[in-house]
Amino acid sequence: MTITRGQADRRRAILEGAFTVFARRGYAQACVKEVAAEAGVAKPTVYNHLNDKATLFRQAVQAAAQTVLDERLAALEPLKEPGDLHATLDDVGHRLLELHADDRSCALRRLLYAEITQFPDLIDIVLEYGPHRLTQALADRLARLTLAGRLSANDPDRAAEQFIALLTGPLEARSRMGTRQIDDAELREIARGAVRTFLATFGTADG
Predict the structure, then answer these.
(1) Is 86 within 8 Å of 78 (Cβ atoms)?
(2) What is the rounded distance in angstroms from the CA atom of residue 47 to the CA atom of residue 173?
(3) Which of 46, 61, 159, 162 gives 20 to 30 Å between its CA and that of 4?
(4) 73: in domain
């Protein structure tokens, strides 16, 4: 069966509306009628695209996780051919912090923490679209920079894990696990601190 552009757009609107409602209300309190209103479609249209509330929830979480991952992978693109490596890492770190602290990412983490017991299969979504995918992609960039003599990261996987931890650890603490808004100046400060520490360990004299 061929899916038309209109059908794809409606499905996307339904999933985005569903994620908004589930993030706002939680799974138990959310209802399909509210999802339909949020998506701007009729309630039967929701059921035409997704059979039941549980399927709607899983699909909405997966779509949000895919969007979050795609944005993070795009943030790593400047590391393919960095000029000033220090400045590029500062910019990449800042962008990753922006994405980690945005409304969608925070809502996604809250939903996963709240519903993982009722929906243990959500762990499959975490494995497919979660932080380790970002770490793998970052490790690939760091390995290439090491081969080019720009870094000294003999274990790129560990270096990538540590860079992410240097960014998200302070952010989670300062934002009180996403409950306090962090302004851009503070995000940049966190990024610069993370990059200084990272390069003190993995930098090279001529990098």
Answers:
(1) no
(2) 41
(3) 61
(4) no
CA–CA dist 99, 93 (Å, integer): 10
Q: How many Cα atoms sit within 13 Å of 2 on the Cβ side?
A: 2
pTM of this prediction? 0.91
* SS3 category, 151: strand
DSSP structure class, residue 203: B
Query: Which backbone phi and psi does 119 adopt, to 5 degrees?
Result: -125, 75
**Does the residue 16 lie in any domain?**
no
Phi-psi region of 87 (alpha: psi -120 to 50; beta: other; left: phi over 0): alpha
Q: Are the C-beta atoms of residues 12 and 67 closer than 8 Å to each other? A: no
Q: Could you tell me the CA-to-CA distances from 195 to 21, 48, 77, 90, 203 in Å, in that order?
A: 37, 49, 17, 6, 10
Q: Is residue 32 part of a domain?
A: no
Full pLDDT tens readout for the chain, 207 residues: 445 666 788 899 999 999 999 999 999 999 999 999 999 999 999 988 888 999 999 999 999 999 999 999 999 999 999 999 999 999 999 999 999 999 999 999 999 999 999 999 999 998 899 999 999 999 999 999 999 999 999 999 999 999 999 999 999 999 987 788 899 999 999 999 999 999 999 999 765
> Domain range spanning residue 135?
78-202
Helix (H, G, I), strand (E, B) or coil at 55: helix
